[in-house]
Design a protein that fits this description.
The structure is a homotetramer.
Chain A lengths: L1 E5 L2 E5 L6 E4 L3 E3 L8 E3 L2 E3 L3 E3 L8 H9 L3 E5 L10 H10 L5 H11 L4 H13 L5 E4 L4 H10 L4 E5 L6 E3 L8 H7 L4 E6 L2 H9 L4 E4 L8 H6 L5 H19 L5 E4 L5 H9 L4 E4 L1 H4 L9 E2 L15 E2 L6 H6 L11 H11 L5 H4 L3 E4 L18
Parallel strand pairs in A: 7-8, 7-15, 8-9, 9-10, 10-12, 12-13, 13-14, 14-15
Antiparallel strand pairs in A: 1-2, 3-18, 5-6, 16-17
Chain lengths: 384, 384, 384, 384
């Protein structure tokens, strides 16, 4: 679906969550028979939901809770947990700070203290001691040093994550991060991201990534689009990467899960991400809105602390309920932000999909959200 | 009109009411000569409008009034009328409840009392005693037991309705609802829904449905889309099912009417639904806004009472006039929510359509509602 | 550009003013050399602007003023001017009435007094006595009787106008209005409308119409779309009818001007209507906002007075300046509602179009108005 | 991508900044290795940003500052700097004027004093004496006289700019401006504009333009579209002109840079303009919001002073920081209006583009901004 935008410049039409909808067919399956589990390396997870490596979303407590509930939380090894012994007090001070000047306040907190390997080890042990799965993330710049401490402490999953994560990086200043070597040497599965596009995904799979994080500036109106002009809507990004996964799988026999990361706001978006080809999804604000979250009611991105080009601020996400309620209900909101797993099961049931792989084949329609609709659609809630 | 949304994922472009408009041709017919009747089994209805099985829309009084005016109201056999002897008092208590906590209040009212077969019989007899046509609805889970009582009481039309109603249902827990057997054994016409899509519609017709309810999460921005990701815009859904009806009709000689259910807000939407292929439409909030409605000024969906995944709340629909004014005018509003039949006649007149079957052939254009227009379009009201 | 909206239902994509923009080429002409005149029958008009037959837009005074300035105002022979001797007082009373209940107030004023032939004659003579061109309108139902009085009084142009004006009208109740006979017998040019579509336009031209009014429910979000589901965006409607005009012209040698009527809000829309193929445009609210307008600051459509299906109300249009300022400037607003002729000249100049026929060939792009743009486009005002 | 808008009228689909997004590929380059310089004639500029010839954006001080920072500011020779000796006081009086009546106030200030050649010389010498590059602009009407003074004072770059600037101009009143002769005789590079479209661009290049300003009414909802109906979205306009540049380059060996002028609001738009084919961009309001700007916090277009058809007013642009902060950061806003060069470098880095020519090949997607998205896309700020 390529168009000419002008002259010789061509562009593909891309699609975000709000432009598509899922379509039932002639078969419905019982929601109780729906299997939403997925597998990363040799680990099976009961629910296809990961918590993103944001300081406002994941601390050891949240990692333990997510693991108990069948999901996976990723802790950020470049964040406050690895910089401050008493991270919880620092997180609370961010939640308590006035909005005015909060970006500068956050910038200072991250700049003042370096990452400390002993804190990395301590946090991971807190998670492991509770019998939970420990997953952590670092950037290509910090991954090698962080991995050393993390592996020593018994980490289960390692994530290497940057805005645009590729195998190929050219620089006259620093050596290229050796993705393939890192994956090969790591004694645990390495998830790499974020990426978009068929070719970049194939290269990451060939380099040995255990799973791929999909999503670069996915929102239609997000900071990356305003600041950098960059952003691929998530339905297109996910379907592109899923095509790479399927072809790589067919060729090599190795199945590399695709994790859609970014832009997901509700149960409907989770269902659409999987129908677009994802094996699991990564959530940030939705998790940061749990009662158990590190800085209750608030979240901020890692790019907030960037000294010269901050892309983000502290946002109020509110507190919607316990993590268990957010994942399994009961929902006391009807906006799709609670009972995410229940919603996914019901969606899959209605679409006749018994597991994630079948859900990836669900029928999709292009059905744009129009601004003028939705006001008096109360009847839509009628006979459900 | 299939597009590639990414990778190998394809999607059809779909259309809702706000994206299309009807187009006059070279013939106008006198509105007084327009016939808007339709037929269900051996019953002829003067107007192609059904009232939806919502507790806030249909009680015995409304059923009687709709029948007198030539339409058909469907009473919900899983609702308050079948649970409470003094249902009107309970309905009034919902209308009177403060918004805060109203979902929990409604949930309790539905949970506290089971459906009672003697109340089913009583409600239907109230309708029949007034000489009106009695139509009732149940879900696949409750249909068989409810039908027994309903038939005994002399019901005229039975509706089996669920979010996604299909012939095929797979479960390790409960037996499949036997659609074909139920339709065959029922001594009255059985309407089945809700459905979308050619294949599901064909299967329901082959199973013996007397009419099909079309519509699954039809709104562009509705709860089903947010919670489940599911939703088919109604123009596309209706046209798909109408194609199935026409082919089935040609093959078997049996004509199974298509009833568009959900997302209809005004006379324009009714005209578009029929032009898309519907034989009749089902309305909820518009009917709940009648003076005679069970809980004047309010409506709520059945999914509001879902314990773990409520998809809806009590909404204020206001009171726009008597049912007669809503259907036949005079209108004292210009938003298209009153004199629906008058508007449909005038629309058909302008399009040169003498009856519903001709209206199904009306020319349609894709003509999106743009947010920036409509502000100063007063002239559009000019020379009408 | 036909799409399948579902099943076997097809629909053309249509376009309104806000979705297109005009594109300069390699030639600019001096605005002073631009000729914006057009011809109706044997009458030449200096500017391609007509005032619509709304009681809030045209009284004899306005007709005289428009004629002096080179345009043409159409007076409504079914309106207050033909019902009340002291129409100005009645108009003032509408302007003074509180908004609450104004529709009923207007309905009564139109219902209480019948149209009086002697008032028709009086109004036309007022216009003719001032040396101005007199144009009047009636509906098919009232045209024959009104025309008798109008012709007697020396009218110059007669307009037969209804929501959908076609040659063919089928009725068991009333005889068809004989368009061809009426045009043939009238001693003056007869403009007929409103119409859309190639075939309907061809038939009206063959019936002898001197010009065609184009536009049925043209707004994207207008009352006709909400109430009737009917509405054709004006760029598409104009281009369709212009194609009929050009083919009819080629075949018969008779050139029948196309007048775009409805949905025009500013100078940009006028330019686009002509670029889509129009020979002239008809304006309502924009003219009703003149200081000289009959009910300064207000307008209302004829359908407002419909007893059972009112489609409109009294709207506040404000007072933007004298008619001369609205047409020729100077503008003291930058929203494109003043100096309409100056704007059209500058637009044609920039597009290299020396006259209306060349402007009809101007290059057009599909360039949707996006809600998110336009906020900080101040630079667009920069180097003009 | 031509569509039929109706009848025989065809139109190309065009694209603006908000409808496209840039797409990373499998290569990332180090931002420190990115080269954003461009060349005009024999002059190399370190950053591809020009300040527009608005009185609210450029005075000699700003020209000096821009030059020091590697960019180029264009001073308007028809503006206040060339009319008033104490221009700074006049500019301050505009900033201080109440909004009510400000258009008339500005109109009088421009009308009261003619352009004075000695002031032209004085301003340019102020810039040259500071060792900066001096660029000035005039319209075709004033260019010849202004150029004489400017060249005498040692100007480095001359800009001839009008709303639609073409080689061909037909007039019965005034002689055509001899573009080719002017370019040939000028001892300095002459930038010409504004233009859109392949053919017009080719003709300007053949006439000897040293660079082309691209952009005519580029905003989707801008005054030119409302008043004149004219406006080409900038992505399409830029790509069209870039195609002309590349073909002309291939044929003649002369490379004529394309400068996208208008509608650019943030770093993302700059990246998109270059990815569409531009060599540099021209900014107005963004520069007028610098602390050093002539009328701090305000801007107004030249068309504001038009006596009969004002297209613009004085707008409040605010003060976002020093020019250096706007261009090179640090940003203390996350809306993409600060650290524009840093953002461009990071964007190019993420897209694997080492220089402007490579950035012109960046992959682009059509990815519309939807009104319903962007609310809860905080996660998009997450892992950047």
């Amino acid at each position: 679906m390529e168009v000419v935008v002008g002259g010789n410049k061509r562009a593909r039409r891309s699609y975000g969550f709000d432009e598509v909808a899922l379509v039932p067919g002639p078969l419905v399956v019982d929601a109780r028979d729906v299997d939403v589990s997925w597998t990363l390396g040799d680990k099976r997870f009961e629910i296809p939901i990961l918590a993103a490596a944001l300081d406002g979303a994941v601390n050891p407590l949240m990692a333990i809770e997510m693991s108990k509930l069948g999901g996976l939380a990723v802790m950020n090894l470049d964040g406050l947990q690895a910089r401050y012994d008493d991270a919880e007090a620092v997180l609370q001070s961010i939640a308590d700070a006035p909005q005015e000047g909060v970006v500068g306040f956050i910038q200072r907190l991250y700049a003042e203290r370096p990452v400390q390997p002993e804190l990395i080890r301590k946090r991971i042990r807190e998670i492991k001691d509770a019998g939970a799965v420990a997953a952590v993330s670092a950037t290509p710049l910090t991954a090698e040093r962080a991995a050393e401490a993390a592996v020593e402490a018994g980490v289960d999953v390692f994530v290497v994550q940057s805005t645009v994560g590729t195998v190929r990086f050219e620089s006259s200043q620093v050596p290229e991060f050796p993705v393939a070597e890192f994956c090969k040497n790591a004694p645990v599965p390495v998830i790499v991201g974020n990426t978009v596009g068929y070719q970049a995904t194939i290269e990451l799979m060939e380099a040995g990534a255990a799973a791929i994080l999909v999503g670069v500036g996915p929102g239609h109106i997000c900071t990356s689009r305003k600041v950098l002009g960059i952003g691929v809507p998530q339905v297109t990004a996910t379907a592109d990467c899923a095509a790479a996964r399927d072809e790589y799988h067919e060729k090599t026999g190795r199945y590399v899960p695709i994790i859609t990361d970014g832009g997901i706001r509700n149960g409907g978006d989770i269902a659409k991400a999987i129908a677009a080809g994802a094996d699991a999804v990564m959530l940030g604000s939705t998790i940061a809105a749990a009662q158990e979250a590190p800085a209750p009611g608030f979240s901020w991105g890692m790019a907030t602390s960037s000294a010269d080009l901050p892309r983000g601020t502290r946002i109020r996400v509110g507190v919607s309920g316990s993590l268990k309620e957010i994942l399994f209900g009961p929902a006391h909101r009807d906006d799709g932000t609670m009972n995410l797993v229940g919603a996914l099961r019901l969606s899959m049931s209605s679409l006749g999909a018994r597991d994630i792989r079948e859900m990836q084949q669900a029928e999709m329609m292009v059905a744009p959200s129009l601004p003028s609709e939705g006001k008096s659609l109360q009847r839509a809630q009628g006979v459900g």
